[in-house]
UniProtKB/TrEMBL annotation:
Annotated localization: Cell membrane
Entry keyword Acyltransferase: yes
MF terms (GO), sorted A to Z: acyltransferase activity; SNAP receptor activity
UniProt protein name: Synaptobrevin homolog YKT6
Source lineage: Eukaryota, Fungi, Dikarya, Basidiomycota, Agaricomycotina
Membrane disposition: Lipid-anchor
Protein family membership: Belongs to the synaptobrevin family.
Domain of life: Eukaryota
Gene Ontology cellular component annotations, sorted alphabetically: Golgi apparatus; plasma membrane
Keywords: Acyltransferase, Cell membrane, Coiled coil, Lipoprotein, Membrane, Methylation, Palmitate, Prenylation, Transferase
Database matches in InterPro entries: Longin-like_dom_sf, Longin_dom, R-SNARE_YKT6, Synaptobrevin-like, V_SNARE_CC
Ion transport among keywords: no
Length: 199
């Protein structure tokens, strides 16, 4: 999974989009290709932003790349575009775009949009590095992975207890916490299960 570029643009309806702030990670491309790839990504970023209606989100696939766009519209008329590979999940991509737009509008005054070269928004460089891992962008995805890891740990713990067979039998026999009836039930269940083992 890889994010190649993220950009925040002013995208007035029916007009040309202007890049206000952007960051890219082209380290996976050869040094000699990077200039052309950067131009292509900037061109495609503007094109997709201009063709995304105000208040709309859309994803566009082009070969092995996906362009996720969120045109917030509103009085600021801003949009954000994320270019990533097709493996990067959709929900974290849109979570990142929403966060980027929220942070940008809270830190950069609208009056500076007319002079993009004067805009300072260093957070965008942090986003492209930090959110290469989609779990950083999506709390739900991160929580789900933590739950999955917990399930794996529990499963391994149960398996390790079951693999000790005889020791577990000895524990049951010696236990004062189990009644004679419970010990009998355990032994009966074990005998019945052993006859049905598939080889």
């Amino acid at each position: 999974m890889k994010i190649f570029s993220i950009a925040i643009l002013q995208a007035p309806p029916g007009g040309a989009a202007t890049v206000l702030s952007s960051a890219s990670d082209l380290s996976s491309f050869s040094f000699f290709q990077r200039g052309a790839i950067q131009e292509f990504m900037t061109f495609f970023t503007k094109t997709v932003a201009e063709r995304t209606s105000s208040g709309q989100r859309q994803s566009v696939q082009e070969k092995e790349y996906t362009f996720h766009t969120y045109n917030r519209g509103g009085p600021e008329q801003i949009a954000a575009v994320l270019i990533c590979d097709q493996e990067y999940p959709v929900r974290p991509a849109y979570s990142l775009l929403t966060k980027a737009l929220d942070d940008f509008t809270s830190k950069v005054p609208q009056s500076s949009y007319s002079n993009p070269s004067s805009i300072s928004f260093p957070e965008i460089d942090v986003y492209i590095q930090k959110y290469q891992d989609p779990r950083q962008a999506d709390t739900i995805m991160r929580v789900q992975q933590e739950l999955d890891e917990t399930k794996i740990v529990l499963h391994k713990t149960i398996e390790s207890v079951l693999q000790r067979g005889e020791k577990l039998d000895n524990l049951v026999d010696r236990s004062n916490a189990l009644s004679a009836q419970s010990k009998m039930f355990y032994k009966t269940a074990k005998k019945q299960n052993s006859c049905c083992t598939i080889m």
